[in-house]
Amino acid sequence: MKIKYILIVLGEPYSTFSEIIGKYFHRNTLKKKKIIIVGNIKLISSQLNKLNYKIKFNKIDNFLDAKDNVLNIINIDFKFKKIFSKVTNNSKDYIAKSFEKSLDIIKKNKDNSIFINGPISKKNFLNKKYLGITEYLSKKTKSKNEVMLIYNNKLSVSPITTHLPLKYVTKNISKKKIISNVLKIDKFYKNKLKKKVKFAVLGLNPHCETIDKLSEEDKIIIPAIKSLKNKKININGPFSADTFFLKKNINKYDVVVGMYHDQVLTPIKTLFNFDAINITIGLPFIRISPDHGPNSNMLGKNESDPASFFYAMKFIEKLN
Fold this sequence. Notes:
The protein is α/β, with parallel strands linked by helices. The protein is 36% helix and 18% strand. The strands form two sheets. Strands 3-4-2-1-5-12-11-6 form an eight-stranded mixed β-sheet, sandwiched between helices. A four-stranded parallel β-sheet has the order 7-10-8-9, sandwiched between helices.
């Protein structure tokens, strides 16, 4: 896959993402790549100047005018009184316009583009209409059955259900969904990373056991694993989640599939901190989200960890 365009949506205007961009781009560029930032040029320029990151932007109106090896930016109007402020729902229209502009561009270049979005406040922007940005982008692109992959080259994880409250998890796991998700991940690794994957699948219940008559392991998870084995997928499980993430276990596998969000995201973030990225599989393009939130409490302090964004850029280099 030859990556030509890297679209970066700034997202929440009052987040540490501007600082993180500054920490990367004041020293680094990706050769032979057209990097296009979508957001308000006055705000990000002011934020970066205040943090002593002197970065020049090439302002463009059309993505076709983007140049290599510089930071191109398409301006999205946003009225702000302060360069550092609290996160509120006043920015939701600005964020929506930024996403809409970026999606319009990437639709025309989906085969050779990467979509990176900065963090947003789910409470203020999504307003309960969507579970997360993963689901928001799926709806906007009319995609179905998207898959969340938290990627690290040593070990990645994927939850079958994403941003669901725990009380809804049981009703939203199925044999069909487990099979579909694993096959999509397997295809992604083969096509994009040229790698054969060894999967581990976690159970839903503690110790993969339940006092109920219905066992999700017996009815859903084990049949799904058997079906995937018949499709020549290298997969084992179900494993008990409380002991799986020991070193002797994780060294044997490439991807761990869990049943719900925190079951796999908590251990992966404990293991790798911010050396991981959120990749959405199943969209018409590759979408990457650096694995951190707006972190508005640290806005303007120049103390944020940029590791996940650095990891995202390294990952993009692997795709060429």
